[in-house]
Write a structure and sequence with these properties.
The chain is α+β, with helices and mostly antiparallel strands. The chain is built from 14 helices and 22 strands. The protein binds adenosine-5'-diphosphate. Adenosine-5'-diphosphate binds next to strand 12 and strand 13. This protein is a component of the acetyl coenzyme A carboxylase complex; first, biotin carboxylase catalyzes the carboxylation of the carrier protein and then the transcarboxylase transfers the carboxyl group to form malonyl-CoA. Pfam families: Biotin_carb_C, Biotin_carb_N, CPSase_L_D2.
């Protein structure tokens, strides 16, 4: 087992990894930028190392500085969390050459699934259905127009290097396709230094269902069932739950089997997620693999009882998976709300600043993953998520009641948060009945304001 892990991330996920290290009796160090200096969670690690100024490109994304920090504290492994360098195969390679274990999937698998177009080819090879799409990258407007004529509008333009909804545009006709292509290429180039895009049929009101997988270095892969992440705003998740409501047992089984087939084909290990869209006829289509731990991983931890970060660390150290597929069972119902420092009344504008009052909810069935305390200053530099509020109850109805109770107890002052929008979501009949899709929030909740 590792002696000392360096956490190359910030905020709630850095704290989550620090806690996992403590549980395993492993020493832990954490990096921080000048914008995060003095954040209370840093004191919970054995050491904290400053790696540069606030902008992520000068700190959390600077490979040399993170490697230097690992060498200073003498870490034998690095946990990248999510975002930042977590899906960067080059970073994993640098770690290897510096004899530091990267806690994540193997470089080759990362490189393969990190490109969405290549990931779709892999899915086809593994006999996993994919959304009808262009044959690889589209280079010219003519190619794009031909594809659209074939499958019919609307079509979706997607960046091959995409993530966080960037470089994604819906086109309704030939004119918006041409302008959308230019915009998507530009956005993707700026965000990922890779302007390549491809096209997909834009599915009508699908659900987003994803499968958590876990593999070891000995070729064992298991799935830990699904999360339903259909409640989104601008293709970004707001609420996640497991099990997915109203999903026929056979469909669930088929999607889980498809996910395992896919990652086995990539010789994948560590934690990962296969994302699918499911249409009204419960036909499912693979869209992408997230080759890292995800924000919403605690939903799966609650229903399966498996500590995913701990297992990630164990398999990175070379241990065999401690669970056979037959031992993975789900119990009860779990839901997560992403609490962002954003102002829902002003188009979800980020709301940085000092939290003057932080009164978190608690009681039976509640888990709160957060690095925030009263007096904490939310820096303007990073992702706006400040907490993940989770509940776990025997039934979905009970989970909803507990989530309503927890959202009501949660008091935050000094910054705006998405708590009010979650309170509304949990009163919405279509969601209560499990009848939502990925465009529901924008169609039914936000446009009516
Ligand atoms: P990113 O990696 O940028 O988050 P994804 O490929 O994971 O992008 O897609 C994010 C979301 O965009 C999905 O959950 C879904 O809501 C929507 N989406 C993606 N592809 C399609 C599609 N072909 N049809 C309809 N919606 C889509």
């Amino acid at each position: 087992m590792f002696q000392r892990i360096l956490v190359a991330n910030r905020g709630e996920i850095a704290l989550r990894v620090i806690r996992a290290c403590r549980d395993l009796g492993i020493e832990v160090a954490v990096v921080y930028s000048e914008a995060d200096r003095g954040a209370p969670y840093l004191a919970l690690a054995d050491r904290a190392v400053c790696i540069g100024p606030g902008p992520a490109t000068d700190s959390y994304l600077k490979i040399q500085r993170i490697i230097a920090a690992a060498e200073v504290v003498n870490a034998d492994a690095i946990h990248p969390g999510y975002g930042f360098l977590s899906e960067n195969a080059h970073f994993a390679e640098v770690c290897r050459t510096c004899k530091i274990e990267f806690i994540g999937p193997p470089e080759a698998a990362m490189a393969q699934v990190g490109n969405k177009d290549r990931a779709k080819q892999l899915a086809k090879k593994a006999n996993v259905p994919t959304v009808p799409g262009s044959e690889g990258v589209v280079h010219t407007d003519e190619e794009a127009l031909r594809f659209a004529a074939q499958v019919g509008y609307p079509v979706l333009i997607k960046a091959v290097a995409g993530g966080g909804g960037k470089g994604m545009r819906v086109a309704q006709n030939d004119a918006t396709l041409a302008t959308g292509l230019a915009q998507a290429r530009q956005e993707a180039e700026a965000a990922f230094k890779d302007g390549n895009v491809y096209l997909e049929k834009y599915l009508d009101k699908p659900r987003h269902i994803e499968i958590q997988v876990l593999g070891d270095k000995h070729g064992n892969v298991i799935h830990l069932f699904e999360r339903d992440c259909s409640l989104q705003r601008r293709h970004q998740k707001l609420v996640e739950e497991s099990p997915a409501p109203n999903l026929p047992a056979q469909v669930r089984e088929d999607i889980c089997a498809a996910a395992v087939r896919l990652v086995k084909t990539a010789n994948y290990y560590s934690a990962g997620t296969c994302e699918f869209l499911v249409d009204k006829d419960n036909k499912f289509y693979f869209i992408e693999v997230n080759a890292r731990i995800q924000v919403e991983h605690p939903v799966t931890e609650l229903v399966t009882g498996v500590d995913l970060i701990r297992e990630q660390i164990r398999v990175a150290a070379g241990e065999k998976l401690r669970y056979a597929q037959s031992e993975i069972v789900t119990r009860g119902h779990a839901i997560e709300c992403r609490i962002n420092a954003e102002d829902p009344s002003r188009d979800f504008r980020p709301s940085a600043g000092v939290v003057t009052k932080w009164q978190p909810p608690g009681g039976p069935g509640v888990r709160l993953d957060t690095h925030v305390v009263t007096g904490y200053r939310v820096p303007p530099n990073y992702d706006s998520m400040v907490a993940k509020l989770l509940v776990h109850r025997p039934t979905r109805a009970e989970a909803f009641a507990t989530m309503r109770r927890a959202l009501r107890e949660f008091v935050v002052e000094g910054i705006h948060t998405t708590i009010p929008i979650h309170q509304e979501i949990f009163q919405t009949p279509a969601f209560i009945e499990g009848r939502v899709d990925t465009t529901f929030i924008e169609r039914e909740l936000l446009t009516k304001k």
